[in-house]
Amino acid sequence: MNEFSSEKNHSFRLLLGTILFSLLFLIPCALIVALVPIQTKAPVQTLPQFEVEAVALEEDVPYEAEIEDEELLEVSYSAKAQDFRKKIDEGLSLYRQPYSKAAVEWFYIHLTEDRDVALAIMKEADKNDIPLSLAFALAHTESEFKAKAVNTNKNGSIDRGLFQLNNKSFPDLTEADFFNPEISAKYGMSHLRYCLDTAGNEIAALAMYNAGTGKVRSNSTPQTTLNYVSKIDSYRKGIDRLFEDDVLAFYENNADARLAKN
Fold this sequence. Notes:
It is elongated, with a radius of gyration of 47 Å. The chain has helices at about 1-35, 45-85, 90-95, 100-110, 115-125, 130-145, 175-180, 180-200, 200-210, 215, 225-260; strands at about 150, 160, 165. The protein is mostly helical. Strands 1-2-3 form a 3-stranded antiparallel sheet. It contains 11 helices and 3 strands; from the N terminus they run H-H-H-H-H-H-E-E-E-H-H-H-H-H. Helix 6 packs antiparallel against helix 11 (about 225-260).
């Protein structure tokens, strides 16, 4: 009896231990199932979609920026080319560029056959923003590029030098000053600049340079002055044609060649 009871108690303890161990395992599992919701879609399915969108944005932004930069460069270069062809006074524009200044100087030195005269006129025309062809046409009509030219007027005043400065209009200049190409060009171009600013157009400005501001404003410009203006205009057109053939055509052809390469 005692041996049977002891064996029975041992079996009971084994069964109870097994039940308790099973409960300890099942209870956490039940809690996990109860607390954690079941997902119908795997979260990894949304991640690749997000990553693809992000990569697309990173590729699009620099690509669009690159296209815009190319368009801006294209427009800028085209605009510069158009501006080059639209310039009213190509001579002054090319004179101001280091790569073409020597060619412009060469042209006008050969036109005047006097280096000092040509350089003086170009320098002062540049300072006063006066077209080179206009400046040289004026000098040719006034003195035929002769720095020592002299003309006595009916009223007794004397015009001297390259730009035929009048002794009454420029009383502070000495005779040596009048015959100095640099000084004559300095005062001649500054006076023409004044006439241009006052008159508002080249024809009236040239009339003022020759006949005086008062006569032009009072509409009493003499016929000789009208002939004078016409002579300047005619000579200027001749300069422009020569300059276009001998100098401007070279730079325009080079600009066309650069455009063709692109």
